[in-house]
Amino acid sequence: MTTPRIAFLASPSEEAQQALTQMTALHGVCEPEDADVLCALGGDGFMLQTLHRHGGLGKPVFGMKLGTVGFLMNHYRDGGLLDRIAAAEPAKLRPLEMLALTESGASIGSLAYNEVSLLRQTRQAAHLSIDLNGQTRVDELVCDGLLVASPAGSTAYNFSAHGPILPLGSHTIALTPIAPYRPRRWRGAILKADTEVRFRVLDPYKRPVSATADSHEVRDVVEVTIRESRERTVTLLFDPEHNLEERILSEQFVV
């Protein structure tokens, strides 16, 4: 069996940089473009950065936790990496595509592996309408914001906003309001993954709204369209005892 070429990528933290030195001493240095596997050293934030920067290469990513949050990561160990990669279980993720139109007329696209969120920019609540596949479902939602989350991202910001946890591979996305005021009883929806979701900002000048795809923020938006990507996928690798599907399932039973 050919030994895989591994490109190590590390967050700026001291702990991750020390691990980078250890890993490259053991396995050598390889550029992402030439690698068979990418190994991300850091937390979930750095994993998302890695997917945004290098996801287009189509290389599987094995992450090791050296950060605050590591839901998308494996435990860090400095030995046995080749055996762990050989035994790893893949999890395919399909990101969300965001297209945001701004007051200035700019059209800005971005990908989100966790969620796309719309948030009010001032003290005044946002007034939004919601269309699904071209049909208006909510004429006016008064809220602090609104988000669309993928299954992998449903345990993050979405869950803290009281949204549902979605099983990996369920081909669904979560639509979750943030601090909704009106309609009083609406608490969001679970949608088929191929649903095209469009938000319109009803009073963008008096009540400005920003849109954020993972960490990419676009301010003063007037319309945002979101759908699951039909072309882009990324593969994360997990230790069998630490696989992502089981972890997402277990999150539903935490009391």
From TrEMBL:
Binding residue positions for NAD(+): D44, G45, N114, E115, D144, A152, T155, A156, Y157, N158, F159, S160, A179
Cofactor requirements of the protein: a divalent metal cation
A Pfam cross-reference name: NAD_kinase_C
Predominant place of localization: cytoplasm
Active site: D44
The enzyme's E.C. designation: 2.7.1.23
Presence of keyword Membrane: no
Keywords: ATP-binding, Cytoplasm, Kinase, NAD, NADP, Nucleotide-binding, Transferase
Superkingdom to which the source organism belongs: Bacteria
InterPro entries tied to this protein: ATP-NAD_kinase_N, ATP-NAD_kinase_PpnK-typ_C, NAD/diacylglycerol_kinase_sf, NADK
Localization of this protein: Cytoplasm
GO molecular function, one term: NAD+ kinase activity
Catalytic function, reaction form: NAD(+) + ATP = ADP + NADP(+) + H(+)
Enzyme class at the top of the EC tree: transferase
Family statement drawn from the similarity comment of this UniProt entry: Belongs to the NAD kinase family.
The protein's role, per its UniProt record: Involved in the regulation of the intracellular balance of NAD and NADP, and is a key enzyme in the biosynthesis of NADP. Catalyzes specifically the phosphorylation on 2'-hydroxyl of the adenosine moiety of NAD to yield NADP.
Name of the protein: NAD kinase
Gene expressing this chain: nadK
